[in-house]
Amino acid sequence: MRTWDRFKKSYLLYSFKRDPIAIISFSVLSVFVIISILAPVVAPYNTYDSSTFDIMDGETPPAWMEGGSKTFMLGTDIQGRDLLSTMIYGLRVSLLIGVGAVLFQSFVGILVGLLSGYLGGKLDAFLMRLTDIQFSIPYLIVAIFTSAIFKLAFGVGRYAELAVPLLIVIIGAAHWPIYARTVRASVLGEKNKEYVEAARVIGIGRWQIMFRHVLPNTLTPVLVISTIQVAENVMSEAALSFLGLGMPITKPSLGSLIRSGFEYIFSGSWWITFFPGVLLIIFILVILLLGDWLRDVLNPKLYKG
Amino acid sequence: MFAFIVRRFIQAIFVMLIISLVGFLIQHNIGDPVRDLVGERVTPAEREVIRDQLGLNDPFYVQFARFVKKAGKGDLGLSFFYKKPALEVIVSKAPATIELVIVTAIILIIVSIPAGIYSAIYPKSWFSRIIMAFSTVGVAIPVFLTAIALIYLFAVELNWLPSYGRGETVNLWGWESGFFTWDGLKHLVLPSISLSSVMLPLFIRLVRAEMMEVLETEYIKFAWAKGLHRRRVWFIHAFKNTLLPVITVFGVQLGILFAFTILTETVFQWQGMGFMFLEAVERSDTSLLVAYLVVVGAIFVSVNTVVDIVYGFVNPMVRIAGTK
């Protein structure tokens, strides 16, 4: 209860209520998140079950167009799946991978940053060289290479089965250095403060100081990056899927849906590309706007100065 | 300074060794060079003889050393699909990608600099607001969607521009160029616009931010006080000092642009290195894949090394920070 009271009086909530862009982005994002969590309930059809669709319904245009049918509001894709349901499931997959990869990369990045910043010395030099090296190659190239290699190593069928966990690891591994650098920078700022010294004086162990005392004070920047990273990860996933290195078409994410629609754009079936594309753009945009807002609010230099 | 250069070179070599180790591991574990050579219809006994001849039964480190030695001489194996040395295939695809990046860079410069300067000088005008809104939304639009939208509009609906391939090319001393035919130029329009859309929002914001910062400085105020013409203040005095950071970022982003060529080339079936790479993945052409990995790695490592050394000359802080 006390946390709730503190939240109600916080600057965060205050500035949120005064920023219409933040409110709109947050509501849109919440709707997306709820829809994707409740996908099996909300979606008109279960697109993972091949008995619910018929290839004869393929390429039906949206309901308001000529040849459209009331049963498929936004039309169907090539295989006759209801596009709206496929998009909802696709959103779910994109969100799952985006958030999963953020968890993965923040776990690795925070661990590396904390160890590197607090312990210093040779370990620090080695780990930071490693981030330097990875930074020198664009993350998208890293992700494309690793997914291509995994696809060859596992074979197409096996890769399609394991696509979600593999993509989480691939995309997470491509982005972790940002976390490591950020956490390390804040750890370096924190580690010489009085409270750490006090903890050391009363004889608390190194690991406990690191994880119980220093870590919580480095999490603000992590929160800011994480928001923007979800958007980045969703974009990376869409890019990989569009290249055919991501989600298979049987369990499409928004990216693979766009890829499958693109092949039919010349025959005039624009809706298979258009609706998932718009959904993807809105999804990424609201996360980015929210991330920008969060950065402005949580950056104390901006509001105190 | 000398120590800094040496350290930087050692690091570069170390990275290249890691990249070639990754490449070697892929080739070692996934590819089957015997199949690449003789196909499937050879008895196991004969296969074993060939394996021995090729040295595939040697210890791991011997094979790796051989791989590195050959790679150093430019021999990156044979492409299974093209039946040609992998490096040769990559080099033959490079001009398409390079031309795409050149045109994209030109578009970036001629659009982002005027747009950035304009929105810095008149931050409140409606046109600046449109530019800024575009650069906010633009970040969220993946490059392949821009590309598809352009194809749909200009190729499918209006039928003005071609949607795939490079069109007619001219061979200039072994360089297949699309710059010298009308058809080749027409084919360049949509891919380069799509590719530039990735970086355009960032660059407009960057030029704008730099320009606004410079316009606040003392020497610009002094220039106003001297009564100089406003064009002179904007374009001669202020603009010059926004250039340095812009050029720096441009250099860094060029590498990232390269990553996005893979996506653009896929949409437009542009016969460049990125398209070749994806084809190699689909055909399980392991040698070509590994060769691409090593070549791209080498490009990135050498560009980064050169940039770092140049920075070291310009800014002493860089080389001291690395020492400790």
List the helices and strands and how they pair.
The complex is a heterodimer of chains A (305) and B (324).
Chain A: H1 2-9, H2 11-17, H3 20-37, H4 39-42, H5 83-119, H6 121-135, H7 139-154, H8 156-161, H9 163-190, H10 194-201, H11 206-217, H12 219-242, H13 254-262, H14 271-298, H15 300-304
Chain B: H1 2-29, H2 33-38, H3 44-54, H4 60-72, H5 86-121, H6 126-139, H7 143-157, E1 170-172, E2 175-177, H8 182-215, H9 218-225, H10 230-268, H11 273-282, H12 286-314, H13 316-321
Helix pairs in contact in B: 1-4, 1-12, 5-6, 5-8, 5-10, 5-12, 6-8, 7-8, 7-10, 8-10, 10-11, 11-12
Describe this structure in words.
- The complex is a heterodimer of chains A (305) and B (324).
- Chain A has 15 helices and no strands.
- The longest helix of chain A is centred in the first third of the chain and has 37 residues, at 83-119.
- Chain A is mostly helical and 305 residues long.
- The model of chain A has no long low-confidence stretch (mean pLDDT 82).
- Chain B is mainly α.
- In chain B, 77% of the residues lie in helices and 2% in strands.
- Chain B has helices at 2-29, 33-38, 44-54, 60-72, 86-121, 126-139, 143-157, 182-215, 218-225, 230-268, 273-282, 286-314, 316-321, and strands spanning 170-172, 175-177.
- In chain B, a hairpin with a 2-residue loop joins strand 1 (170-172) and strand 2 (175-177).
- In chain B, helix 7 packs across helix 10 and helix 10 packs parallel to helix 11.
- The model of chain B has no long low-confidence stretch (mean pLDDT 81).
Rough outline of chain A? globular
Low-confidence stretches of chain B: none
**Global Rg of chain B:** 25 Å
Shape descriptor of chain B reads: globular
Binned strand content of chain B:
under 5%
The N- to C-terminal Cα distance of chain A equals 32 Å
Helix content of chain B: over 70%
The total of beta strands of chain B comes to: 2
Give the class of chain B from helix and strand content and strand pairing. mainly alpha
Whole-angstrom Rg of chain A: 23 Å
Structural class of chain A: mainly alpha
Sheet-strand content of chain A, in percent, reads: under 5%
- Compute the number of helices of chain A: 15
Pattern of helices and strands of chain B: HHHHHHHEEHHHHHH
Give the neighbour order of strands across the main sheet of chain B: 1-2
Order of helices and strands of chain A: HHHHHHHHHHHHHHH
